[in-house]
Amino acid sequence: MQFDWMKIPYAFLTLFIVVNYGLLVTALIAKIAARVGRRHGIPIYQNYFDLIKNYGLRSSITHGVMFYLGPVFRLSGGVGLLLFVPSIYGSYMFSNLSFSGDLILALYFFFFGTLGMALGAAESGHPHAAIGITRGLSQVTAAELPFGLAVFSVALQYQTLSITDIVAAQQGSILAWTLFTNPFAVTAAMLSFLGSMMRPPFDVVLAPQEIPIGPPTEYHSSYLALMQTNRVIFPIAKIVIYMNLFFGGAADWPTFFLKVFLIYMWSVFVGVVFPRFRVEQSIRWFLVWAVPVGVLSIILL
Amino acid sequence: MVNALYIIVAALTAAFLLGMLKEERRATAYAITLATLAFMTWISVSWVWAFAQEGAAPVEIFTAGAVPPFAINLRMALPEAALTLMVNLSGLLAAIYMKDSLFRLGRSAMAVFLVAVMAYCGIIMTRDIFNLFVFFELVAISTAGLVLLSEDERALSAGFKYLIVSQVISIFLLLGIVFAYHATGTLNIDGMANASLGLLAGGTISFFMMFIALVAELKPFPANGWALDIYESAHPSYSALFSAAAGTASLYAVDKLLLIGGAEWLPMATGIGIVTFIASSLLALPQTNDRRQLGYSSIAQMGLVLVVLGQRDILGDSTPYIAFGLLVSHAVAKAGLYWISGLVAGRELTDWAALRGHPLLIFAFVSFIGMLSGLPPFPSFYAKWELVRFLAGEGRIALLALILFGALVEAGYLFRWFGYIMKRAAPAEPISCTPHQVTAVVAAVAAGWALGYLWGDLSGRSNLLLVLPLLFALSFLLLDWLPAWVKNTLAIAGMLAFFAFTFAEYDPLRLIFAVIILVGGAIILLASYDAHGRRVGFYPAAMLMYAGLAMLIRATASFDFFAAWEILTVGSYFLILRGKQSEPHALSYIIFSLGGAFLILTGFALAAQGAPQFDIASLSHLTAPLAPWVFILLAVGFMTKTAAIGLHIWLPGAHGEAETDVSPMVSGILLKAGLYGLFVLLMTMGKQQLYGVELTHVMLWIAALSALLGNLMAIFEEDAKRLLAYSSIGQMGYALFGLALMNHLGWLMALMFVINHYIYKSMLFLAAGGVAKRTGTRDMYKMGGLITLMPFSFIAVLIGIIAVSGVPPLSGFGGRWIFYNAILSTDYRLPLIITFFAGPIAFLYLFRLIHTIFLGQLKDEHRKIKEAPFWIVLPQMIYVALLMVVAIFPGIVLRRVDTYLNQFFPEGGLNWEGLEISSNYGYWNPVAIMIVVCVIFGTLFAWLLFVNRKAQKVKQFNIGFSAERPYRPETTHFAWNFFAPYRKALGFLVQPFVTRFWGALTDFLHTGADLSRRLYNGNGQTYAFHFIAFVIIVFFVRMGV
Amino acid sequence: MAYIAMATGFILILIGLFGALTNRNILRMIVAFTVADTGVNMVIVAIGYMHGRTAPILDVAVSAAEAAARIIDPVPQALVLTAIVIGVGVTALMLAYTYKLYEKKRTLDIAQFTELKW
Questions:
Q1: Which residues of chain B lie closer than 8 angstroms to A108, CB-CB?
Q2: Which strands make up the sheet holding B916-918, listed edge to edge?
Q3: Interatomic CA distance for residues B852 and B597, integer angstroms
Q4: Is residue C117 one of the residues assigned to a domain?
Q5: Alpha-carbon Rg of chain B, whole angstroms?
Q6: Same-domain check for residues B462 and B472
Q7: Domain presence at residue B763
Q8: Are residues B622 and B737 in the same domain?
């Protein structure tokens, strides 16, 4: 795969579609979750209003360079992750910037935003930010492990690290999806998925009560707006990887929207039912329940 | 040529002459003594010269105008000449050293001294067994006299105990002699040997009695309490003579006796020797008295040489080379150490801290313990190599293991002692020395180095003292008076010049190591410009390490490789020891390293199968069943240097406590020596199986566990440099993992780790060191908020942690990408799971490192600190640039190696098309990644600047915190026990099991030795009992066998 | 005759050793050692003895020509002389030591001189 200049506007197009879809779908999900709790919930356009308001706010302070750059790192991570992965299978237009690297690039770029964000939040000097980060990092190490194992299992299964090739291998029938050809890997990955979606039972990192919203504590106005933008892009970007690896990818946008929504809903289903874990509990949970499944998927291959 | 009999004649004449002098004319008496000793020495020298250089034939000296067996005869040949030279020279130096004591005691003491030296020479030269007895009795009497030279009143009882035991010994000796005479009809040793004493009636028992009596003079365990008491209480210069000359003479007597006994007594000699060696080495462990410890060491060395004599059946013609190599090293070192002990006022080992501040004496001490531990370039090193080669070649592995164990224990307490000298509080009393005392010590040092040269010359291998890098390193000993910056410039220039001259000789793999060692070492040395003053001792040590490393990668023969390995080990030990608190850590480092080195030594020796020359490349010709064992020995040896889990406990302290510019050297560069060794091992030997177990598979597990546990231990560490040190364990685990994968990409990944780890770990250690220098602490929770005060250090750490964690777009990602591609083509999947877990854990400690130091709340006491010194920041910035270059163009280093690796693994290499790098599985375009990330980041940054251009910097405590405004940084900076939840969840994994294991082992040895040494209860009668018990045990062992 | 001498010599050696190892008084130990020394000397002489021969002195009774057949082995006797001389020297030295030791501690108990140990 090679670079050509047309990819840049196309990449912007993908970004535009995903941002709007993300704004809507996160609001929808918030509303669904509220309804489960017998609350009314936010209107579907609420995210647009929030974003515009926050970008418009002019009262802003900074705690230093890293603090200022934190949200930039965060959003670059989200955008980069989205663009390093082809969104639509078989489409040149929406293959994005995937010529830069394969699955491993995406896997490691996960951490770009996290790391930058953590650094920025930490410079604020707010202990809650630091506590939130330690919790988040602690949890993510255990939560990512089953996913890593699943990815490895899938790469072994298809003997490639190229996302496009992995999707290509799952075409034909629904039974060709990794979900059916390698169910253990998918199970492990989907359990891991719960850990990274900031929903119960694994949301102590951003827990609203104990720690006023964790790492972003000190962020406000346009910083917050950047992070909110990321909050709508990042889950989608991540789900795209799950979709491509395990659920046959998407050959067109409607399939894309549907699959992403359904995968997203998995975490919501679990989230509205279960109470919250403490960090050490969730570490143990992932190691005890999810990791063995991942190990199994590798051994049985 | 002067007749050798004049050695004896001169001493006796002078002794009588002294008796006729007036008591007051002490100066004359002393002059006569010295002149006589000098004359005796000269005779020996002339004979040594005649035999060694002119090839003279051995000379028999007949007395009383008759030939044996009717008269006594003596012999002068090369061994006798060399041994009498040792005796006479140490006698001369001892007399010079104890001038004051001899003056105090007068002519009679001098006469007795002369008689003692004469008697030692007599023991060496005589070929008559009864004459031997006479000389031994003369030694006994003169020893009892000379012990009284000591100012220590306790020497009196020591001398008496000696007399008691010597009485018992002489009874045995006499009975043995007379029965042997009865059986053979001659008293001549050669005559007895020809008569095959053992075959005659009563021959065995009579030989047994003679043998046991002479062996008893070597102070075998347990019949040696008397000797220890003498060592402890006698005048140090006499102890020097007692150790160097008496031991030498007795050994030669036993050697002569073994001629009579023949081959069947050799195992007995070996057995007694090895028991003595091990027992004395162990019993020395809990010693605190310096002279007694030296006594134990002397006894142990005697035992070792006895083992060599007992192994004559396999050593053959090499016996003298080996035995003399050990013996002269021992004699010179022990004499020197006893002489130094006379300069130290206190008798505790820790009192030797008084030597600090006397570079010459420190150098002497180091030379001496190097000789005793068998380190290059001293004779004992060559001897050790040869001994091990023969033992391994003949399959005497148990004996070999025991010898190396004893040697390790001995090295352990010697280096512990050196640690005391360098690190313990100096005692109130400074050392007192007179010029003649120093003369003796200096002469011993010079002799030691000269002998090192001689042995190298005789070795038939490369003479280490002619190897350029080592000479360069040693030359810094002479330049130590120069200011540090001059030496630093010289060092950098030397390393770069050496690289420039040898540049073309390396293959791509070695080239990478060469660049890291020589050029990389030079970059780290830039930080050393920060040091002021003369920095005595730093450059010889550092250059020794670099010399060893440079020699290591250039070595092709196993001997050169091993020598280089020991040199770099010793050099790095001295470097590490320079840290303020690093005494215990340097000790555990040297013990683990020497242990590992011994394994390597054994591995090479086994592989050589007795062949005198063995190229490392020939490792590939080895076959089972030998090959897997060689593999294990070498692999474990190398893994001690890479601090694989289980062998890692030395690393955190050693790297953490080292000086600011030393930490990057020992972490960034030295660890690579182990990896280089493993590279070489795997390149030559490849996969090996033992009992059906794939050994590289085992390595994979070790590597994976190292990666996981190293990282886990790092996240719970409060000390910044220790955190980095633990992280090295994890990183080395990754590199080892890549190697053990045994495929093309695995090795490429290992190499990528070699490069990356050098860059970012050096950078991070320098940054952490710089911060520690400014804040005065290494505890991270005491810091915080330093980002604005130390921006360059912050940038270095930031870039460093991004690179370490493998996040794109920096160079760490390349390593990870190759890692994933490498593991896709391996069959071993389970260990991978552990490394998968280890990866993200790195984020935890890295974040902790940057957050607790640079982010969060600035402490009041740090408000005025400045950026780290220029010279410490400069290399960091070079590393930042390097990281960027490696990140964008990994091809400039990797591509050639990739091609080079094709000869080992033709399959699975990378494709380098344009800017894209692809494997069989995936692809990666570093330039594109860098551009994409930068563009996205830049765009968003511009956007934020646009919408948020009026952001105001607020003050430190301007945060909303539980509805209050905090004001104390200590309570607001969240840093201590940072990952508490992690400890709750997984803390059980990092319980210090390994530390406890090694601790329990050393405690066991110590406590065991402490209990056992109560055997020597100080009662002369008990000592006589010990001797009788020894006789009975040996008798039954001998008859039982 | 020779066997009796030799047996006596060995018995003396054993008595001497036993005495030296069981008596804690230094003087008694020295005496015991001299007893053992005497035993050793007796053994040596006994070994050199040959039945029916005469003393190794060349005089009227034994001419140089027939000496080899008529005299006993002279070497052990020479050895004994040397051994006796050395024994005297050592004993004297030990006695001198004893004197010094007694001066220092006012005791002759060997068990009291154990300040050097371990």
A1: 806-808, 813, 816
A2: B911-913, B916-918, B923-924
A3: 39
A4: no
A5: 32
A6: no
A7: yes
A8: yes
Helix (H) or strand (E) holding B298: helix B290-310
B795 within domain boundaries: yes
Q: Which of B712, B762, B719 is nearest to B733 (CA)?
A: B712
Residue C118 lies in a domain: no
The tally of domains found in chain C comes to 1
What token pair was written down for A71?
């949200």
pTM: predicted TM-score of the whole model, two decimal places: 0.94
Of B171, B187, B1017, Cβ closest to residue C40: B171
Q: Is residue B564 part of a domain?
A: yes
CA distance B118 to chain C (A): 17
Strand B952-953 and strand A61-62: pairing? parallel
Tell me the residue range of the domain where B527 lies: 467-937
- Fill in the amino acid letter for B367: S
Tell me phi and psi for residue C109, to 5 degrees. -80, 120
CB contact under 8 A, B1021 and C24: yes
Identify the chains in contact with A, defined as 3+ C-beta pairs within 8 A.
B
Asked if A109 and B961 come within 8 Å (Cβ–Cβ), the reply is no
Which residues are paired to B913 by β-bridges? B916
Domain count for chain B? 2
Residues B439 and B502 in one domain: no
C-alpha B779 chain-centroid distance? 31
* Best B129, B133, B157, B230 residue to mutate vs chain C (most C CBs within 10 Å): B157
Task: Give the domain range for residue C41.
Answer: 2-112
- Per DSSP (E only), the strands in B909-975 are 911-913, 916-918, 923-924, 952-953
Q: Is B404 in the same domain as B539?
A: no
In a domain, C103, yes or no: yes
Q: Which of B937, B965, B982 is the last residue of a domain?
A: B937
Does residue B264 lie in a domain region?
yes
B471 and B414 in one domain?
no
| CATH classification at residue C20 | 1.10.287.3510
Cα separations (Å) of B1013 from B283, B1004, B1026?
6, 14, 13
- Going through B844-966 in order, the beta strands assigned E by DSSP cover 911-913, 916-918, 923-924, 952-953
Cβ burial B36-75 (10 Å sphere, 16+ → b, else e): bbbbbbbbbeebbebbeeeebeebebeeeeeebbeebbbb
Residues ≥6 apart with Cβ < 8 Å to B432 = B343, B345
**pLDDT tens digits for chain A (301 residues)?**
577 888 899 999 999 999 999 999 999 999 999 999 899 999 999 999 999 999 988 778 899 889 999 999 999 999 999 999 999 998 888 988 888 889 999 988 888 888 888 888 888 888 888 888 888 888 888 998 999 999 999 999 999 999 999 999 999 889 999 999 999 999 999 999 998 888 888 888 775 554 455 677 788 888 989 999 998 999 999 999 999 999 999 999 999 999 999 999 999 999 999 988 999 999 999 999 999 999 999 988 8
Given B937, B960, B978, which residue is the final one in a domain?
Answer: B937
In a domain, C98, yes or no: yes
User: Cβ(B799)–Cβ(B762) under 8 Å?
Assistant: no
Q: Which residue of B174, B1014, B1019 is in closest CB contact with C111?
A: B1019
- CB-based contact (8 Å) between A124 and chain B? yes
Let me know whether B456 and B499 are in one domain.
Answer: no
Cα gap A142→A286, rounded to integer Å: 6
CA B928 to CA A2: how far, in whole Å?
10
If asked whether residues B704 and B835 sit together in one domain, one would say yes
Pick the residue from chain C with its C-alpha nearest to B1013: C118
Pairs across A and B, CB distance < 8 A: 238
Nearest to B307 by CA among B351, B355, B275: B275
ipTM for the whole complex:
0.96
Q: One-letter amino acid identity for A81?
A: L
| B565 and B685 together in one domain | yes
